[in-house]
Amino acid sequence: MRIAIAGFQHETNTFVSTPTSLTDFEQADSWPPLLVGEDVLETTRGMNLPIAGFAAAATKHDLRPILWCAAEPGGKVMTSAFENIAGRITHAIKELTPLDAVFLDLHGAMVTENSDDGEGELLSRIRQIVGPNVPLVASLDMHANISKKMVDSSDALTIYRTYPHLDMAETGARAFRMIEAIRRDGRPEKVWRQGEYLIPLHAQQTGAGPARALYEGLDEFDGPGTQLAEIALGFTAADIHDTGPSLVVYGPDRTKAEAICDTLSDRLSSAEPEFDCPLLSPVEAVRRAKQAPDGYPIVIADVQDNPGAGASSDTTGLLRELIEQNAPPTLLGLLHDPSLANAAHQAGHGATFDATIGGHGPGDEPVQAKVLVHHLSGGQCAYTGEMYGGGVATLGPSAALRLIGSQIHIVVTSGRNQCLDLAQFRHFGLEPKQNKILCVKSTAHFRADFEPIAQDVLLCAAPGQFPCSLKDVNYRNLRPDVRTHLEG
Ligand SMILES: [Zn+2]
User: Fold this and answer.
1) Does residue 480 fall inside a structural domain?
2) What's the gap in Å between 74 CA and the centre of ligand 1?
3) If DSSP codes are grouped into helix, strand and coil, which group holds residue 190?
4) Average pLDDT, 10 consecutive residues per value, the chain (488 residues)
5) Residue 328 sits in which domain range?
6) Residue 308 Cα, ligand 1 centroid: separation in angstroms?
7) Residue 331, SS3?
8) Which of 7, 123, 210, 241 could anchor a disulfide with 105, C-beta 3.0 to 4.6 Å?
9) 240 CA to centre of ligand 1 in angstroms
10) CA of 389 to the centre of ligand 1 (A)
11) Tally of structural domains, the chain
12) 337 and 254 belong to one structural domain
């Protein structure tokens, strides 16, 4: 088979006003920079990415990589950026035609300045080029907000089944198997249904609880042939019509696909009360962490300041509380503050200076403190955890600082980057196991690498740009029948 492959990933937080530009897609961050042609395969080989998993499963075929890019989650994608990247993909597909199939590595929650459905727009443009008979399959993040246009324009969508996303490559491989099955057995019937309620991301983790039960039950519906059932739990920081969970079921037999969708729909409905997952205030979270027995660290997740969900990663609510309660040995990361990182580099290793720390966003204030420069780095940090191991975090010029008069170390970066891997502290000469409290600006991805060394995880709702308490969010554009929180 001659298969065109491309990747274009963005998770858009519509509550963030700073738009996402072409430069944001071109530069490296948690993932590689924009890759073109054969570089797509060479750079991503072996990584936990859908396009890498697809390529590894399709080695016997004639793959034609076009481009792959992803920007750190953030505000709406600028129309100019979307048109540039989508235009390069569609132009290349025209040039490569005739094709036997097309595979796209997408997120599924992209909102652009003039479309609430970036992926639906891209998929429909490609469908118009390749026609109805060329299999068009995309992989999606489980935080996709799936639209009718996405389902109608594609032959199948495969979706991650873990959060932290440990199965991104496997989801790409499943997309390849679906293309093979479609080529053999014909296009499947599709059944798509949206859920009735939104699920906050901090309650979506699949290591335990209701999401684990939902996803564990999916395997029983895989195959034979084109039969496949997938679930997306949705991205709640998007105020659009299609926000929330979706079920998509494929197969040769429409009646059977509908019956599977009914089963999954019942499971999703009955899980609603279990997704009620309370959050602690910063005062309570720090107090509980201090009271915990010595030994393994306590992780406090600053769930609303997660840059991996579009937040600024520089809020100070939790830091202030650590200082106020005179915290025991504590690490906090990753605080996005390019001017502070630069000031640390100017001061030099071992120097002390008066620092202005974070708090640049609306409603926040920087923390003023005297700090010691513990470690400096250019910011190329090799991940070692299960989720991103084999890849490199591009943090930009960065530093570890100790707040003088305290036992608190902060890792400050020039790029926005989610704290989800122990290497992001160890790179700076800081050993997580030797600290009582680990504060991570992450909602759930940190769990893969941090939970094995932690005695407990506390979810903390300090102010941030990624709202997790959905009853407090002022949505305007949701479907009228979707619930944003448990009734009563
Ligand atoms: Zn995700």
Assistant:
1) no
2) 13
3) strand
4) 98 97 97 97 97 98 98 98 98 98 98 98 98 98 98 98 98 98 98 97 95 94 95 98 98 97 97 93 98 97 97 98 98 98 98 98 95 98 94 97 98 97 98 98 98 98 94 93 74
5) 282-468
6) 8
7) strand
8) 7
9) 17
10) 17
11) 2
12) no
